[in-house]
Amino acid sequence: MTQQAPAHRRARPLTFLACALLALCTASCAPFFGGSMSPLSPQVKSVEAFQRDLEPTIIAARNELVTAENFMAYKNNYSIARYMEDGKTLYSFHSRMFFFTELDTDLIRDTYSARLLPLGFELSEDRWTSNGVEIVDYLWINEEYQAVVSATTRLGEQTSTYYYTQGTPSDGSNGDPKQLIDQPGRIPDWFDPNLPPSGQG
């Protein structure tokens, strides 16, 4: 028997999620590919430093926006991937993607910006229409940590948010660089651990 989110958490039909994912990732993953981020910069902070220095603040802002009342679904889990580039071992951190019903894009922008801009993030904003739906995409980018926080709103439907790094080295401080550092709030207290990701179960 598949467990699903309670009805009060699904204020919009989850059928929106499948059709939205491609558009969301196409827009939000842009800094991974040919963007302004330079994965081989010698000044890039480590994946461990990202978790120590920036992730707690990102989590705090995210948890202000995503609540038990407006949560719809989630996609993927937290992970750190290792790969080789030009003979160097690099890492990419990927967070869980949360879908929620908040559609006030000014609130979303201001909540993240209040916490992230003082930490050296820069805000990028893009708007377009797809199949009659207006989409507002915010990216907060921190070059020093190769970090991106994404929030994409399909007006009238839903918002998705997640964060990631790309091209970050390891400083060796955590033993296994692929092991996540424990972070309070990374998984919100209200989150049901038995709930399967969207599209599974």
From TrEMBL:
<feature type="region of interest" description="Disordered">
    <location>
        <begin position="162"/>
        <end position="201"/>
    </location>
</feature>
<dbReference type="Pfam" id="PF16145">
    <property type="entry name" value="DUF4853"/>
</dbReference>
<keyword id="KW-0732">Signal</keyword>
<protein>
    <recommendedName>
        <fullName>DUF4853 domain-containing protein</fullName>
    </recommendedName>
</protein>
<dbReference type="InterPro" id="IPR032326">
    <property type="entry name" value="DUF4853"/>
</dbReference>
<feature type="compositionally biased region" description="Polar residues">
    <location>
        <begin position="162"/>
        <end position="173"/>
    </location>
</feature>
<feature type="signal peptide">
    <location>
        <begin position="1"/>
        <end position="29"/>
    </location>
</feature>
